[in-house]
Design a protein that fits this description.
11 helices; single chain; eight-stranded mixed sheet; elongated; 8 strands; alpha+beta
């Protein structure tokens, strides 16, 4: 009982001051948090942290998975292995401190930071979560995603497409999100729209780890010219959510139907990660379009994001 009370107090205190505690904990109850962690626990919590810090992260490497494909944790291990976060020494039913340290170190290395161990013995589930919370608190404020939002040509209050520019990532990419045509605001009957301005819709693109504050807004025709102004640049889809895939080139001329999720091949998917390969819009083109954009960023910041490779 004393252990459970201590954990409850910790959860309340950390929930106020720390990022992502609830999301990382998931449905783990208080009594289970005090139990020793297994390799499966470590993999599950680490995957949650990755998905909060790096939504729709493409595969970084080809890797084998030390579980049977029918195992319930196979997909989690596959994703971690493809992201180079799974040490060869990992075991499913037990967790050595050295293995967890290496898993955490590899994630921290994406952001150029080091982690200080907070325990020396076999870790509990709570200790795994607490170290991931500390890491997210360390790196989250330094992540600066930029929202790209375009209104519909026929209805200026409707979002035609919205996306995140993640130039601050281990894998720089554009994360395109299905437009919220019928999405409701939590706790109300109000649909997500631009009626109250762009800043009001940014929380729907944020996670507890990466708060979206900066944005670039434009009517759909301007946004289209900004990103598709040069036919030499090819759009490549490098990851889909909810399933992974091999990268493929979007057919030339069909880019807008993908950005707006109107293409049939995106049925059932909520987000995808994309790259633009080849020369993008020229600097004069960007400068010419700047007066037509609405943003809370400076002109130099906009140019840097649009012109970055």
């Amino acid at each position: 009982m004393r252990v459970l009370l201590t954990l409850a107090l910790l959860l309340v205190g950390w929930g106020v001051a720390q990022r992502c505690l609830t999301e990382l904990r998931g449905d783990t109850d208080l009594s289970a948090l005090s139990q020793l962690a297994s390799g499966r626990d470590a993999a599950r919590y680490l995957r949650r942290a990755v998905e909060l810090l790096e939504p729709v992260l493409p595969q970084l490497a080809s890797a084998s998975v030390p579980l049977d494909p029918h195992d319930p944790d196979y997909d989690t291990l596959r994703l971690l292995a493809q992201q180079r976060l799974l040490p060869a020494e990992w075991q499913p039913e037990s967790l050595a401190v050295t293995v967890w340290r290496e898993m955490l170190r590899r994630l921290a290395a994406w952001y150029g930071v080091t982690v200080t161990p907070t325990f020396a013995a076999a870790p509990t589930r709570w200790q795994l979560i607490s170290e991931l919370v500390l890491l997210i608190n360390q790196v989250g404020p330094g992540l600066k995603p930029v929202a790209l939002v375009a209104s519909d040509e026929q209805n200026s209050q409707q979002i035609a497409f919205w996306a995140l520019i993640r130039n601050d990532s281990v894998y720089p990419r554009l994360i395109v999100v299905r437009p919220p045509f019928d999405r409701l605001r939590a706790g109300s009957d109000e649909t997500v729209s631009l009626q109250r301005g762009v800043a009001a819709v940014l929380p729907y693109l944020s996670t507890c780890a990466t708060e979206v504050r900066r944005y670039i807004f434009a009517p759909a025709p301007v946004a289209r010219r900004l990103f598709l102004a040069n036919n030499e640049a090819r759009m490549v889809i490098v990851e889909l959510e909810p399933s992974s895939l091999e990268p493929w080139y979007v057919p030339e001329g069909e880019e807008l139907t993908y950005l707006t999720f109107e293409h049939a091949s995106l049925d059932g998917y909520q987000r995808f990660a994309a790259l633009f390969i080849g020369p993008g819009p020229s600097l004069p083109t960007v400068l010419r379009l700047l007066p037509q954009l609405r943003t809370n960023m400076g002109p130099r910041e906009i140019v840097d994001f649009v012109m970055s490779p």
